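ARCHIVE CARD
Drawer: 12
Card no.: 0347
Subject: one protein chain, sequence and derived structure
Cross-reference: see card 0346
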Amino acid sequence: MERVTDAELAAWRGFIKAHAQVIERIEQDLSREKRVPLSTYDVLIALFEAPGRKLRLKDLTSKMVLTKSGITRLIDRLEKDGLIVRAKSEEDGRGLYAVLTDEGEAQLRRAWPVYAQGIKRYFASALSEEDVRGVTAAMEAIRRHVAAASPQ
């Protein structure tokens, strides 16, 4: 097994700690402003960006960080709150889609300014333009590496 260097471990810990702090602050801001939490926002934005504003539930689950049971509970809650609806697949009749409702889009749009301000305040304002390019390149390199190493 290849050894993790002290520098690699420090970079990893820095990434994890910074991520946790930024997310916690943005969550606090969203809560204070009575906006949807980030887990809800993540589902709503995934649906908003999808063709027809809908995704098969299994595809939505693969885009989320939550466990399968966690995403199921979240989808149940979002449907109860009127932010999404479930619809049967028109192609095969077996699969289910999560579909963004008008209210879901409205809540997404209400949350975005708070979220965007948090990104700027807690993340981007700490970085120079060169740092932003470096972080972007590093995250893309990691994403490509993981994608190439992951079984499809």
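Annotation on reverse: DSSP finds six helices and three strands in the chain. The chain has a mean pLDDT of 92.
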